[in-house]
Amino acid sequence: MHNTILIGAPIDEGQRRAGCVMGPTAYRVAGLAAAISDCGHGVNDWGDVALPALPEASCANPAVHDLRAVLGWQQVLAAKVEEALDLGGMPIILGGDHSLALGSVAGAAAHAAKQNRPLFLLWLDAHSDFHTPMTTTSGNLHGTPVAYIAGRDGFDAFPAFPKPIPAPQICLYGIRSVDPAEHAALLHHDIAINDMRVLDERGVVAPLREFLAEVRAANGLLHVSLDVDFLDPSIAPAVGTTVPGGATFREAHLVMELLHESTLVSSLDLVELNPFLDERGRTAKLMVDLVGSLMGRKVFDRPTRSF
Predict the structure, then answer these.
(1) Known catalytic residue: 129?
(2) Marked catalytic residue, from 142, 223, 253, 260
(3) What is the pLDDT of the chain when averaged over all its residues?
(4) Domain range spanning residue 70?
(5) Which pLDDT does position 301 carry in this prediction?
(6) 98 is a catalytic site residue
(7) Which of 2, 111, 127, 131 is flagged as catalytic?
(8) 307 lies in a domain?
(9) Number of domains, the chain
(10) Active site residue 48
(11) 306 lies in some domain
(12) Of 2, 74, 143, 258, which residue has the fewest beta carbons closer than 10 angstroms?
């Protein structure tokens, strides 16, 4: 049984399309707490984090926008996630755009360092998010967390990442949109890149089981960051960065059930839900269902329903 701790992160500043700020509320309305408690786990909702006084900061790349706000969110989320883990809880961060992982994974890394255990990262996303503030052309900082987590240069405005995660402990899964600058940088890092070509050829199970075996062998903690655009937009339209060819309903639930069976997940991000783009809440409900699978609910237990 997990003691889950819900942490709302209404972050919109990591990209330019308004709406992710409504994400935490949408997850609550879609029944996230009940889906978790129905699986026999404790649920403690800490509410939404709020921006602290914004630090002074600047970036030499003029494209970067909202740096100070992203830094503020990073600071408060890192502290909250570390606190939740220190208390023995399993934090579930309700986003908000993917820049929240700059903070959530930093908090998990700080906790892991205190436990003297390695932290592993499973990045379920259409994008590699391996830009730095200096290489991004869009200026959207939601495209930078993995680079920060892996210890890339270019994050001078950010606090030093507590303990950068070595490349072999990072698994990018479901990737299908990588900018040329990110691709070039990834070639210099030994990060497992399970793009959709790999998943089409090998299936979703084998690459994930191999990664989970490494986490278990190292007695590691596992942070899972689940982006709505990991899913195919035909089943999850509520995201501003849709990329065709994503995970199907069955594939996504299978991934979650494998994660549940592993018993390794110690913290979870739910990111990039934009309820303004949704169809009668169907994406929020699907994401809640996926968390249910992660917490032990079986996909075949569900009644059919209309949207």
Answers:
(1) yes
(2) 142
(3) 96
(4) 3-296
(5) 56
(6) yes
(7) 127
(8) no
(9) 1
(10) no
(11) no
(12) 258
Q: Which residue has the tokens 């072999």?
A: 168
In a domain, 149, yes or no: yes
Positive or negative torsion for Cα 257, 259, 263, 268: negative
Annotation says 41 is catalytic? no
Residue 96 has pLDDT above 60, yes or no: yes
Give the active site residue among 182, 232, 272, 289: 272
pTM passes above 0.85: yes
Domain membership of residue 266 (yes or no) is yes
Choosing from 13, 125, 182, 278, the catalytic residue is 125
96, two tokens:
């908000």
* Residue 45 among the catalytic residues: no
Alpha-carbon separation of residue 131 from 59, 64, 103, 136, 177 (angstroms):
14, 12, 16, 6, 13
pLDDT digits (tens, 9 = 90+) for 12-38: 999 999 999 999 999 999 999 999 999
What is the tens place of the pLDDT at every residue in 246-276? 999 999 999 999 999 999 999 999 999 999 9
Catalytic residue among 12, 13, 129, 278: 129
Q: Tell the residue number behind the tokens 């903070």, with chain if given.
A: 103
pLDDT (0 to 100) of residue 249: 95
Q: What is the CATH number of the domain that holds 188?
A: 3.40.800.10
Establish whether 38 is a catalytic residue. no
What's the pLDDT score for residue 1?
Answer: 85
Q: What's the start-to-end Cα distance of the chain, in Å?
A: 31
* Active-site residue, 142 included: yes
Query: Distance (Å, rounded) from C-alpha 144 to C-alpha 188?
Result: 16
